[in-house]
Every structure is written in structure tokens, then in C-alpha cells.
Amino acid sequence: MRTLFLLLLLSLTMNAHAEPFAEGDAAIGKTMVEKNCIQCHASKYGGDGSAIYTREHRLVNTSRGLLAQIRNCNTMLGMKWFEDEELHVARYLNQTYYKFDK
Question: Rounded to the nearest 10 degrees, how much is the dihedral formed by the CA atoms of 73, 75, 78, 84?
Fold first, then answer.
């Protein structure tokens, strides 16, 4: 019984700090961002467009907010990405810029 309790506790602890977009593939997400996002972001923020992610008063402050913003861009730009593709982008952006842990 004690072993079961410890395993459950360990599992909960590990999940508390798990990557929020573990189902996504960051390498695929990077390719998608480079192909579909950089040009628009660079035209709005200059340089390579990464300032949209790193600006002081950015709109995205949570992992949920990140996914919502990706879905908003997906819809507004008519990219027709599936949910798994949105997760690829979210994982890449999170690992590269945001660093949300849940």
C-alpha cells in the first residue's frame, strides 16, 4: 500500500511540472512557424519577428493563452491547421520563448 501511495505521489509531482504541450513535436512546430508565422510577425515587429514573443507587455502569459493565440491566428489566417499541428507550434514556441511548465 505504501509503495502504491509513493508511486501516485511521484506521478503527481512529475505531472505538476510537465511540458504543457508534450503531445506536440517542437521540430515540426519550428518548421511551421518559419513557413507560416515569421513573415507576418517580422512585418509587425521588425527583425526576425521574435519580438512578438519576447516583448515586455506580450499578450500571452499562460500556456492556455499561448494555445488560444495560436488557434486565433490559425482561424484568422485560414491556415486550417488540425489540433495536433497547433500543438506542434505551441510546443516549439513554449520551449523556445515562453517556458511555461504547466
Answer: 80
Residue 71 domain-assigned? Answer: yes
C-alpha cell at position 66: 499561448
User: Mind listing the pLDDT tens digit for each residue in 28-85?
Assistant: 999 999 999 999 999 988 899 999 998 888 889 999 999 999 999 999 999 999 999 9
Measured CA to CA, the distance from residue 7 to residue 32 in angstroms comes to 38
Written as nine digits, the cell of 47 is 527583425
| Count of domains forming the chain | 1
Q: What's the whole-model pTM score?
A: 0.81
Q: Can you read off the three cell numbers belonging to residue 27?
A: 521540430
What domain range includes position 94? 24-98
